[in-house]
Structure to design on (1350 residues):
């Protein structure tokens, strides 16, 4: 095969084979330092590429329309996939899990807020906003985690896309209440509109519903776009996310050590909470890993938009720097494999 | 062009996130229209890049009477200045059909 | 299979199986109201998603560049597909059909104009413009109809993309003549340029020619983009069209009942005319359905652009509201299956 | 098969079969003039479509974001493909070839500069800038040439994407030295940053590295986007390039015959030099053709950007008109098959 | 900046569909150049969204002499005002190289 | 709006390729901020189309004091005018918070 017109060989090569071959090749070259990278998925390599290009102030900038396009495909793909799997479940059996996941979404920001106020000495609005960001979830991180599990042949409950939708909203509500209190007149109607009809929820939930109604064979004809090129789209998306994360580095220097520490310790703690809940819910190791990752991830789309309008006195640089500049890279590069190891070690009996 | 009339052009540069709210404010304060373009820039609140959607700016123009312009300016100052990246300036323009503005 | 990297199962699952399984699943849930949706293709569900999101004033907006990208792929795909099938026909055998289709394109606006003047009491320019919109065709509707036929295993004459090109232009000429008369000095040269070198015709006809020259195997290497992800692209396109259609709803309230009625009755009548012509031309049931759909569809790209420049005193809100806000959704949601039923009932002997 | 949802038949139809069938069909139609086109790849037909649409001043304009998106995919695809093949080579065996290719990159502009000064009577800055453009390479031309070789079943060294990266830079350095001399204070640090961290190099070299680390099976999951739809993406890209090339036609009339001649003769001479080097390096016929094409191609992305900032007094219209308006179309339409014939004739023993 | 000169800046906001015609009008009426940006907005003819291409606005700027500005304004008023979404305003600007405008 | 203050608005239209250099020039010459939008246009150096990235224009606005505006204008004239497509004009604007500009 010597052209670009055809997909690369061995569509059915087992991933284990894959890693074995790769290791073999790298050993022959005796490039030792690269050896630690042998488990790196190409999508992660693209994230690193974006990160380095950004840190070195490369000219590389993707037009915002491309970023939008990629994220639209990602959101719909994840929703569709989840919806298809949902269509195989009896809905009743999930109601319990859904309730627990919602409770997780309300609890996490409530746990984080006092830490931020007392240890971080942050102003009320800033603490509430950060708590909301970290109580909610990042779809990009979820996509990276699913891809990682797939690449490592770890099965998981595919319907977990539903949990992404469920976890997105509660932290926003809690965050606003923490910042404003119940007394003050927050325009909840307008806010609910803003949150539930934001791009993320509409596409994710829309994809879920379409996938759920259509079922496995129903979505097959649209699978070329939403499944066939999914991982390539994820690679480009992570390239862009690398560039965006790098752009936060400047702020990081400004806002000091606290953000860096918070951005790394919080996901570790949240992952433990999320993973424990997953184990209690009886999820598989893959499912536990995913729920841990969701708990560990911080929103950088839905929550910033909602907070900007509802709690404008919170400094958006603080939360974006932590969520995009620290936690996103940490989760993608270190967290996901770590949370998997944690799931195996703690709950893998 | 004997029939030209003086009006004010108010230009607001601010975060894209405010577009919806800002435009409805403009209308309720008496502007008969507005024009929005996407922008990027730098100011006291740092670089705004437009690399991804909410990180960009918008540039909003309103042609209106002096009174309306001042009312809008005061309102924006009170409502948004302390919490949002925003600048605002006014200039004199001549228009052909004064009834439109 | 538990990842995103691979297309969903059962590439060769027969569509009937598909629907049976889906029905089964929904009955088990005993969600009766959903049962009417069992024939809904996911692409239609995406249209509904866009429509609802738009009507609920969601934040969801795709950048114009994405809309352009999707429509470029759609136009080229349809052209290519048609051209490939054309390359299997002897050209001579089609000349007769082409003549009849052109005649249809000239006749439809002439039939609609008096109705709009007398019943609709519209001004000359407005009536002429609406007649032109409905005499011409919508490529998006054609794509949705082809996808519907394919999903329901109804074969059709694939070379009909040629008819899309043929039907696009005549109504514009007739519309301008109706508005301006022959006497006045219309700049026909400039207009012809505008029409024939507009985006739609160039890409559709260009795709036709490329497909026709290249033949089935020639286009195969570019099939990944133009055929492999076609239906996913159509789904995204219809999502966007749903948003755009919803945005016309405000105008609809303003311009009242007449537009709504016109936007629904006209396609029904035109479908009957188009379907009858198809039957007379000896097309298959699928072909009759497609020609009926083409006749029933209203242009929202080529004609608005041409009318805006050639007949500027016509109110563009009128025709866009009817074409996009009423007729497009009607055709996509109700019309296509209806025209197929009509074809089977009337001409299916 | 009667739908859009599935790729066109005969995924495994041999290209020879393909051409035979096409010829057959065209003979039946007895459309003699088309017969010369039987070797035209659809991607080339799309280039012609763009060229004609542009020359006829069609409305067709793709948004810049689409152009960016297509070129990002192209650059990464080429890099990935090259990197994967690189991972199969022992690196040591390539160092010699890499040195020779670098030497070619330094030599070509030095050969072209005196010709431009003496024969072309160009000002120093203009001569240096044109020399830099033609000494460097065009990635679009490389993609078109690889696609041509693949379509004609000519095998080649896939790792040649590495040579694209190597050839991109030296001519820029030489061009700036020719324009400025060594003495003057050129800000080399800033320039190096500009060049090495420009979009083209980052994506191409980034793709190479990712492909090289990941190996054949590693990149397989992202192959849907980067290989599966590659040729379709190339077709759209060339459509756009046709439009851009046509837009240079106006300048061509202004700057006269010299540019036209230079834009055609230079690639011929450079192809001979590049091809000879390839033969000396022991490349296959396909590899010789590709190196000849690279030498023959002129940069229209990296070099214009660098020259605009480093040698601003050079008139950018001159070099862009020659590179985009003459040489790119010449190479894509005539050059590539010619260089292959040359390789077969001169070095095909 | 002793050498600055007064000119008029004419700004036109109108439907994207007019770009080609409008620009050739500007040139034939004596403008030495123009600048176009994409925009969206709202006016007497309703919201113009730019969600898809032809539904958007353009914002065209011309720096020119007072006479040219008035000629263009009158021409646009006569040719486009009654049928197209369009506004137009003029302001005073200083330029460095008067021969360019 | 008793508290408005006079400033200069400097508008520069030039090739996109210059964005980075131009913006750092502006900052080093004392501008407290700037706003950039993408544009296309035509001038003495021909059509600039934005069909692909580097062929487009940018439109840069700076609100600043008269002195800073003149310094920037002189600098740009000296550094870029002879080799780049560029125009530049100044107008008077009123701002609300003079300390920002
Ligand atoms: N002096 C200035 N001239 C032009 N635009 C400015 C200026 N200062 C700020 N801006 C714009 O206004 C936005 C918000 O300003 P700021 O609130 O100062 O961060 C910036 O992102 C710039 O786009
Ligand atoms: N008062 C105004 N201030 C700023 N822009 C306006 C104003 N009125 C109208 N426009 C712009 O001009 C376009 C056409 O206006 P109109 O013809 O009134 O619909 C609108 O879509 C707006 O972008
Ligand atoms: N008279 C003018 N009015 C408005 N914009 C202009 C004018 N002249 C030039 N421009 C803009 O400035 C850019 C550079 O101008 P030039 O250096 O004359 O080619 C052009 O591409 C236009 O966008
Ligand atoms: Na979280
Ligand atoms: Na019709
Ligand atoms: Na070369």
């Amino acid at each position: 095969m010597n052209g670009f017109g055809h997909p690369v060989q061995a569509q059915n090569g087992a991933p284990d084979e894959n890693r074995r071959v790769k290791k073999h090749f790298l050993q022959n070259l005796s490039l030792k330092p690269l050896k630690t990278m042998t488990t790196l998925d190409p999508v992660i390599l693209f994230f690193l590429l974006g990160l380095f290009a950004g840190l070195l102030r490369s000219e590389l900038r993707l037009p915002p329309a491309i970023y939008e396009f990629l994220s639209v495909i990602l959101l719909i793909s994840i929703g569709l996939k989840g919806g298809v799997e949902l269509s195989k479940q009896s809905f009743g059996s999930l109601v319990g899990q859904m309730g627990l996941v919602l409770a997780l979404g309300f609890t996490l920001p409530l746990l984080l807020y006092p830490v931020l106020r007392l240890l971080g000495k942050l102003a009320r609005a800033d603490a509430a906003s950060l708590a909301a960001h970290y109580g909610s979830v990042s779809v990009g991180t979820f996509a990276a985690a699913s891809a990682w599990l797939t690449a490592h042949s770890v099965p998981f409950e595919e319907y977990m896309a539903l949990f992404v939708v469920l976890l997105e909203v509660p932290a926003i509500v809690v965050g606003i209440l923490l910042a404003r209190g119940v007394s003050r007149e927050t325009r909840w109607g307008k806010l609910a509109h803003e949150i539930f009809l934001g791009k993320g929820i509409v596409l994710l939930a829309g994809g879920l519903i379409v996938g759920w109604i259509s079922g496995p064979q129903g979505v097959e004809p649209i699978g070329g776009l939403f499944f066939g090129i999914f991982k390539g789209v994820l690679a480009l998306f992570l390239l862009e996310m690398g560039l965006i994360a790098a752009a936060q580095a400047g702020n990081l220097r400004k806002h000091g050590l606290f953000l860096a520490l918070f951005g790394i310790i919080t996901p570790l703690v949240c992952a433990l909470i999320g993973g424990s809940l997953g184990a209690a819910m009886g999820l598989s190791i893959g499912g536990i890993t995913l729920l841990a990752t969701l708990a560990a991830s911080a929103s950088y789309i839905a929550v910033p938009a909602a907070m900007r309008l509802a709690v404008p006195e919170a400094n958006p640089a603080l939360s974006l720097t932590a969520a995009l500049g620290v936690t996103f890279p940490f989760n993608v590069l270190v967290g996901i494999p770590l949370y998997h190891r944690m799931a195996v070690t703690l709950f893998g009996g | 062009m004997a029939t030209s009339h003086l009006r004010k052009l108010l230009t607001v540069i601010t975060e894209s996130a405010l577009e919806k709210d800002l435009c409805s404010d403009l209308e309720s304060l008496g502007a008969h229209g507005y024009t929005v373009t996407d922008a990027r820039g730098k100011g006291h609140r740092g670089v705004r890049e437009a690399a991804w959607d909410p990180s960009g700016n918008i540039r909003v123009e309103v042609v209106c009477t002096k009174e309306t312009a001042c009312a809008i300016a005061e309102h924006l100052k009170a409502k948004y200045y302390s919490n949002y990246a925003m600048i605002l300036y006014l200039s004199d323009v001549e228009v052909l059909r004064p009834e439109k503005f």
Remarks:
- The domain at 62-347 of chain A is CATH 1.20.1530.20 (Na+/H+ antiporter like fold).
- The CA atoms of residues 51 and 242 of chain A lie 4 Å apart.
- Chain A touches chain B through 18 residues (CB under 8 Å).
